[in-house]
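<derive_structure_tokens>
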Amino acid sequence: MAASRNYRLASIWLVNFEPAMGTEIRKTRPAMIISGTLFNQRRKVTVLPITSSAPDNRLLPVVVPIEPNPTNGLTTDSFIVCIDLMTFDKQRLVKQLGILSTDKIRQVKSILSESNRTVGASPRATPGVATRVDHLLGKFR
């Protein structure tokens, strides 16, 4: 586990996604912590993977482009993949790279909220799904 205790919402970390199964995200790559800072006091965090591979057209509605800068710690043009939420033990976190800008986290929130509505999920129809997105992103309301 990384030495830092700064597991904040919107922080960007290098994460070891191995071992992966099937079509899961693989290798060590950047990811953004999407779980709330209070939630992250546990041994687990929820992340969204970041890739430098340009998404194909069908994924464009669910990715957020990020340009590298000293604040986010990325070194190449990248994309947050907003459909691959994964919850991991903090032992998978290798090193903190930086933090995402407020405008980018709002774009992520918008995509997650829209995805939640699109699949017809509601707190009544699918217990916990809408509530989870609201809880994870509550700070940015």
Notes: Residues 11-103+115-140 form a domain with the SH3 type barrels. fold (CATH 2.30.30.110).
